[in-house]
Amino acid sequence: MSCLIVAGGGKFGKKALEFGIKNNYKIILIDNDPNCICASDADYKFDNLNDFYSRINDVKAGKIVFLISDVSIITDLFLKLNPEYIIPVIPIHLLAYIISDFLKQKKALNLISDSKSAFNFIEKANSKLILSYNLDQGVVYLSYCKIDEICPDNCVGPEKYCPNFKREKPVTITKYLQNYYQLTNHFRFIEDKSLTVIIIGESYQLMGGLGGLKGSEIYNSLKKLENILDTFSNRKYTLIIATTCNCHGVINFYKQSP
After folding, report:
1. Angle at 177 between CA 172 and CA 181, to 5 degrees
2. What's the predicted TM-score (pTM) here?
3. Model pLDDT for residues 240-250, shown as the tens digit of each residue
4. Is 252 contained in some domain?
5. Rg of the chain in Å (alpha carbons)
6. Alpha helices, DSSP H only, in 60-162?
7. Which of 251, 195, 202 is nearest to 85 (CA)?
8. Number of H helices, E strands in the chain
9. DSSP assignment of 154-190, as one string?
10. What's the total number of domains in the chain?
11. 30 is in which domain, residue-wise?
């Protein structure tokens, strides 16, 4: 039975639930607010992870399980449930969180923001695609939108042309970053004097205004990362994690903690 993880129980979480029910997924909703917008839609509610795991196999397709928790459980949840999609509808870069948390669990690697790598990217990248950035946090936002523009809630993110803002889009943000970092898929490992790992997670259009990350692609990236972890010992490394779609993207730049 296909499983769907929805991180966030707000307005767009509601849309994610609609997608899950329509496509007959077993839906796992996570939010730390027991009274979030989506709470009343749940068929089951748990505030204890062990209780949740003991009952999850009994849940039928098309049902919603509300797990009252913050995002700290997401990596464990992902690895145990093997979801077809993760739908992030919370204001954090969820893929970056999952990967950094995975590294902490597997190798006790603690990452810190890499403002120098973020700055180098900003200097070299197409300035028309840079929406904003925070060098202290090592994060860069890309978009075909301008800073004062808001996409409609039901936008389907078409390629090549934006009908909302009457704007040409010669290349998707996903493809732009893949070309920039010379990726043929979602993962690249560069071993030189220092190590560089680049992971680009694509957010796929599930319905108007809603995108999701494929669980299989996240899992493959984690396995590839796990296979090279031994090379990280006593080496300098940079980790670049991006989530992108046709129109937007967010990139986190990390390096090893001293």
Report:
1. 150
2. 0.96
3. 999 999 999 99
4. yes
5. 19
6. 74-81, 94-107, 115-124
7. 202
8. 7, 15
9. T----SEEETTTTEEESS-HHHHHHHHTT-SSSEEEE
10. 2
11. 3-91
